[in-house]
Design goal:
The chain is of the alpha/beta class. 33% of the residues lie in helices and 15% in strands. The protein contains twelve helices and twelve strands.
């Protein structure tokens, strides 16, 4: 079998191994492939198996690759693949579910705790000599209030595996947790009270987004919904960038209606220089890195290898083209 990885650098920066895929056939790895149809087709060639992360596997691409039998999405989301065309052509498309649950939950709280304690800011001040020149035994920049999370209410929009993992950490910190989700799960009831969206917006001190991007969830954080929130609410997004109307959030940060925001994703990536969140006050932005810990990437590659192995055995798993 000929196997091609079109944009391997996103997952493997040279610190991990693709060795597990080499047992299945001839492997060619490209670090990056531009979303240019001709280049994509040249690199796929007559390969039967293609793995990619963000390359657009469009109808034109899929229909122009008669040997293609399997597309491996090196991520959970697969909106870059024309699933209907793959299904029509009998091509298996497997994604990578639930590999970064712990990592995403962890970064969610890294953002929240930075908002609450401004640890990086105070570290900078210490290294600038502010503490060594302070007459007191401690030093605190009173520009920012420090926030204790115990007793606060966290509202989680989207209560699947990641949302529930976030809830578990929130509970450990003494927070009250409420959740809004399309699906009510018994395991979720042990962690949170399910409420309507409007109730969540009105009650939560912290709102964290973990829902899929659907037409009904696109820009679920908008001026209208922000108006329903408490004054001084904190908003976190480690889900999908388009869940937020970024201009509306930036305006709310400027007025203080929203005290702070922490986002790991934006509407267009890589981030545009004119994104309104870049100039918004008290907004922490990380570059879509929640899923990137070494452990999560190793897990991702292992699942990708198992997806290929299962496909070759005639019993495909994680197949989304069904």
């Amino acid at each position: 079998m000929k196997i091609v990885i079109l944009d391997g650098y996103t997952v493997n920066h040279g610190d991990l191994s693709w060795q597990g895929l080499k047992e299945f056939g001839e492997l060619t790895v490209y670090d990056r492939t531009p979303n240019d149809v001709q280049t994509i087709l040249e690199r796929i060639g007559d390969a039967e198996i293609v793995l990619e992360n963000k390359v657009h596997m469009s109808r034109e691409v899929i229909e122009s690759c008669p040997n293609l039998k399997f597309i491996g999405e090196l991520a959970t989301g697969y909106n870059n693949i024309d699933i209907q065309t793959a299904k029509d052509k009998g091509i298996v498309v497997s994604n990578i579910p639930a590999y970064s649950t712990a990592s995403v939950a962890q970064l969610t709280f890294a953002l929240l705790l930075e908002i609450c304690h401004h640890a990086a800011h105070h570290n900078d001040l210490v290294h600038q000599g502010k503490w060594t020149s302070c007459p007191d035994s401690m030093f605190y920049d009173h520009t920012w209030p420090l926030i204790e999370l115990a007793g606060k209410t966290m509202g989680i929009i989207g209560f699947g595996k990641i949302g529930q993992s976030v809830a578990g950490i929130a509970c450990a910190l003494g927070m009250n947790v409420i959740a809004y989700s399309r699906t009510v799960r018994e395991e979720g009831k042990a962690l949170a009270d399910y409420v309507t969206l409007d109730e969540l917006l009105s009650r939560a001190d912290v709102i964290s987004l973990h829902c899929p991007l659907f037409p009904e969830t696109k820009e679920i954080i908008n001026a209208g919904n922000i108006a329903k929130m408490k004054d001084g609410v904190i908003i976190l997004n480690t889900g999908r960038g388009p869940l937020i109307n970024e201009a509306d959030l930036a305006d709310a940060l400027k007025t203080g209606k929203v005290y702070a925001a922490g986002v790991d994703v934006v509407s267009e990536e890589p981030m545009r220089a004119d994104n309104p969140l870049l100039s918004a006050p008290n907004c922490i932005i990380t570059p879509h890195m929640a899923w990137m810990p070494t452990e999560a990437r190793i897990r991702l590659i292992n699942i990708a290898v198992n997806n290929v192995r299962a496909f070759l055995s005639g019993q495909p798993i994680n197949n989304v083209a069904v």
